[in-house]
Amino acid sequence: MSAEANPPGLFARLASGWRDRLGSTPPPPSLPDAATPADPVAHLHPLLRPHAAKLCSAAAAVAQVRHGDHVFVGTACATPRTLVAALEAVEFGVSDVELVHFLTDNAVPKDAAGQATTRFRHRSFFVGADIRAAVSQGLADYVPLSIARVPELIALGRIAVDVALVQVSLPDAFGYVSLGVSVDIAPAAVARARVVIAEINPQMPRSGGDSVLHLDQIHHLVPVDGPVIEYRHPAVASAAMEQIARYVSGIIEDGSTLQIGLGRITNEALKYLADRRDIGIHSDVITDAIIPLLERGILTGARKTQHRHRIVTSFAMGTRALYDLIDHNPLFVFQPIDVVCNPATIAAQHKMVSVTQAFAVDLTGQVCADQFNGEFYGGLAAQGEFLRGASRSAGGKPIICLASAEDGPNGEIVASRIRAVLKPGEGVTVARTDVHYVITEFGIAYLFGKSVRERALALIEVAHPRFRAELFAQAQALGYIGAEQTLKNMRAYPVEEELTATLKDGRSVLLRPSASGDAQGIRDLFHGLSDRDVYTRFFRKVCGLSDRDVQRLCNMNFENEVAFVACFGPRENPQIVAQSCYFVDPSSNLAETAFMVHPAWQGSGLGATLQRRMAAHAQARGVRGFVAEIMASNESMIRLARAGAVTGPNQVTVESNGGTVRITLLF
Ligand SMILES: CC(C)(COP(=O)(O)OP(=O)(O)OC[C@H]1O[C@@H](n2cnc3c(N)ncnc32)[C@H](O)[C@@H]1OP(=O)(O)O)[C@@H](O)C(=O)NCCC(=O)NCCS
């Protein structure tokens, strides 16, 4: 036994782990190799005695690996590093051995320069930090495959597993160990392997759910006693990420079920859920980010459709605080990855929210999430299942998020991540047909069910302002946007100007600056007006709005043309229930206003709310006042225009001119 693999006193500590967990005081257990006392079994804890023959050193265990074997290595924070190190150290080596894994930590030895020095080939379903050097050196193959489908391919033998190396907790009184923080694909590998070797670690928590193996399923037990690997998210690097996290959290409603994933943005977004209620978790992975939400009583899971009041996951990556929380805690249900990530199960969740971080998206909505600068980076994990599942869930939200621009080495902006077309070396991870929300630090675009033109416009409106004109020109050159279309506001969509207003009758609407993508919503609003309303708004009979007409109502430059819309209902399918706009006359510095409120919303104070919103906006920009030309019979509009708008004395002048009234309101 190598001293490094099994340090002195380890068996004694293993025994003490037993003592702590089971309240008994076993005598020191024995070693089965050179240091084995005369009567090893007698000295073992009673529960280990039936399995004494399985205890061995790491070196002895990995001697079972044969030439040509495919060796599964356990995942993430449960990577069996002692076993992998022992395998790399086998004196005469074994030929043609392939290590198969998902996300690992220290499964690939590296030299001081960070170059992989492994003696084996690796086959990985994820290009994490551990494997990146090996992939770029050609020592590892990346398999672009949903991790949720791996168990099926292992069971079919299409992904070969001859030996499984895993890490487990201490056994219970019935001889069951727990796979602890990483269940994921391990059960499938264990079921298929000729030889199963487990590091048995007293510090590995016992997780609840389908995470147990019986010791009969394990051929060799190698005692280790070290801290379970901890994972901390690096601090959020940029204001952009912080802003995206706010937007993501902003659309997570009470009662939602969340997939957390490992993305920094999602984990950051959880911080902003402090005022939400009854959030549930159904996630491939959980992290420390759930702890504060649990402490505040936000993660009740009370509205989950399945496993109500429980947190369902397949693996955990966090600090000891998370592992202590998981240990023996029935709140957590760990399940194999194919069970957690079954799209039908995900779709059955209440308001399922899934967030995927992407590197780039093109103007039609194709998303690249596993290649960066031409190199494979990260992987598909189970994002496809979560995005599709969330899109089928009632009230679900599949979200793609990305920073709008790529930063250079000194933090300078170098390129847009919203691209006219993806670059060579940027494969499509998520098809344009599956994309719903795309969130950048400049706002939220909703693409599902939208035309190519609508997608391109919506994405340009959340692109970095520096690249908007260029993207618009490229979109026109590609034929995505017609020649007659303009995009007047080349600045960022002013998300900070969005606000929720509660009307006299208690209904709430989102008041926000209009965008060119609102064209259809405005058209629907127009067709909802009565003939009389149309006449009072346009001073003539109008049957329909041409593209140009409708763009005049929503595509504003937000300098001397400004429009707001009032939206009701979910963000992905809002009903525009009102629109108002003002146009500044530079000669007088007065702005002419106009309003449209859907009949079902008239008389509830929405017109007045929009008037106040626009007046505050205009006043902040130094506009002197509003002018409204109103039909003399339009009593409500006259009252609205006269009512004034802002705090402080407003000076109102009314001029009658035959059938119309001109009301001037000076701020
Ligand atoms: C005119 C219009 C914008 C008003 O919007 P609204 O949301 O109904 O207005 P509000 O609920 O905020 O009410 C504004 C004022 O009108 C009054 N009002 C509302 N409905 C009224 C009605 N049917 N008859 C008389 N007054 C009415 C309100 O009491 C309020 O006055 P107050 O502040 O003195 O109490 C809306 O009716 C509309 O879109 N009409 C069709 C298009 C149009 O005429 N646009 C204006 C030309 S630019």
Overall morphology: elongated
Count of β-strands: 32
CATH architecture of the largest domain: 3-Layer(aba) Sandwich
End-to-end gap: 86 Å
Placed side by side, the strands forming the largest sheet appear as 13-12-11-10-14-19-23-24
Provide the β-strand percentage band: 15-25%
CATH topology of the largest domain, by name, is Glutaconate Coenzyme A-transferase
Q: Rounded to an integer, what's the Rg over CA atoms?
A: 31 Å
Structural class from helices and strands?
alpha/beta
The largest pleated sheet is described as:
8 strands, mixed
CATH superfamily of the largest domain: Acetyl-CoA hydrolase/transferase C-terminal domain
How many DSSP H or I helices? 21
Low-confidence stretches: 1-37
Give the count of structural domains: 3
CATH class of the largest domain: Alpha Beta
Average pLDDT rating? 89
